[in-house]
């Protein structure tokens, strides 16, 4: 059976991205391997995740650099599932994560939109038990 292995987030700088995703969001650093010409293969994932990780890819050139922070045209592009929205929301806020709103109830569960260090929009989401 197939599964989604990695999704890419285009970043300005590897080390600042690693610091945010690992120290602030609490992700695990799975790999940080030099691949030549100053490029690195950097993979992070939320703790406990087994199938999908995030490839932190440094922007190469002006066109990619222009996309840093707005990869989805202002839409939420990533969905970080949690079993404890209130606890993770409080921990992330204390670490300096910029939330656009307080947690709100939706038919599918509770959600709060936050921005990563570049401005990309994410949902922190606790799905309803029936989901």
From TrEMBL:
Signal peptide: none annotated. This is VOC family protein. It comes from Streptomyces boetiae. PROSITE patterns: VOC (PS51819). Transmembrane segments: none annotated. Residues 3-127 form the VOC domain. InterPro entries: Glyas_Bleomycin-R_OHBP_Dase, Glyas_Fos-R_dOase_dom, VOC_core. It comes from the Bacteria. Gene3D superfamilies: 2,3-Dihydroxybiphenyl 1,2-Dioxygenase, domain 1 (3.10.180.10). It holds the Pfam family Glyoxalase.
